[in-house]
Predict the structure.
Amino acid sequence: MATAIDAAHVTYEAPDLGVMEKFLTAFGMVKAEGSDDRTLYMRGTGTQHHIHVTRKADKQRFIGASIEVAGYDDLVELAAKPGSSPVRESTEPGGGHEVSMSMPDGIEIRAVWGRRKVEPIPDRDPFVMNNIRDKNRVNAAVRQSVAPCTIARLGHFVLHVKDHDASMAWLNERFDFLPSDYFVPPGEQGPIVGTFVRLDLGEQRVDHHFMLVLQSDWAGIHHSAFEVTDMDAVMSSHDYLLQQGYTSDVGVGRHLLGSQIFDYWKDPFGFRIEHYTDGDVVDHHHRPTKFNGTASETTQWGNRPPLEFFQ
């Protein structure tokens, strides 16, 4: 199986790249080198050349996600799987090589390797928090203006699929993901209808989840999620987006599974997109649990999603 090491980017189609660029800039991304009137590449402050791609098309559509793998040999192994493309040079900015695959529902998954890294964009340090016991911020104040936050990276994405088990079998045949937690129907102990997966990097700590695969009656993306500096970044950006006339979807709150402080929005074409911070990190010793509550019960505090949130 191929060793996945990072979420590289998500890819969409939309009829107006200017409208998408305006929103994503307000959301905290930066236009990346290689953008033109046919494709918009947006980056974060990290080293991935781009983390969000929008291709110009007549209608809006989610295409798929790209996953960075550890080496060229991983691409060779993936290319040998049924339905995979050959290993080929990437035509996207940053170069490198890739293998294109399609999940059972037609969602495109690309494995990429060798794409040029970019210089990080300088960002402020996270604010140090004082709690009732530990007073770590001394002779210093928090000063955060209402402004776009800075997006660091693509952290995870959530996919709706029509056959959870078939989709997980497809992923497990190709990548060395590990399960972090499971969804089962409310009040029941099975069957499993959703799986949070994470990267398997051994003793190295990784995010609680890299992807969530959800059983549904349709196939596509539920949301893509981007990590920001800290809670002040989430909250100040929330106010800024409201000032710019955008409508909040769900947030701010703290998740139960993964513990992230979250804030969901809809982009101008209806795709859900998330700011998050302060998520759990785990290593290969973590063992999954089962969650059998409703969508509203996935939030510990804050603005709770409606019962139909995952439908």
